[in-house]
Amino acid sequence: MVRIAVDVGPLSGVEPALLARAFTIAQAGTLAASARLELRTPAVRVRCRRCDRHWEATGPRLACEVCGDFRTEVLGGAELLLRDVEMEERHV
Question: Are residues 34 and 51 in the same domain?
């Protein structure tokens, strides 16, 4: 195994640094022993239910930046997703 890529959203409840440290421990003695972990942090994407505005939130405030309404829906940023696994072929 060469590479494992994971998306860790800011609202996922997972701390990327702790995940990276846990991966180092978990990979020992496995097929992933030499793999590198790539962590990507996708943006928090929000939609206003009142005016249908879509935006990327940059702070903790999720109120609509156009109409100010608090009835918003989080569209992304809460995911913990195994995005990609790259393996090398071994010939025995």
Answer: no
Predicted TM-score (pTM) of this structure: 0.80
Total count of domains within the chain: 2
Same structural domain, 81 and 38: yes
For residue 64, give its domain range.
45-76
Burial label for 55, CB within 10 Å (0-12, 13-18, 19+), is: middle
The CA distance from 57 to 65, in Å, is: 9
Q: What's residue 1's pLDDT?
A: 73
Read off the pLDDT of residues 28-87 as tens digits, 9 standing for 90 and up.
999 899 999 999 999 999 999 999 999 999 888 889 989 999 999 999 999 999 999 999
Say yes or no: 3 and 37 in one domain. Answer: yes
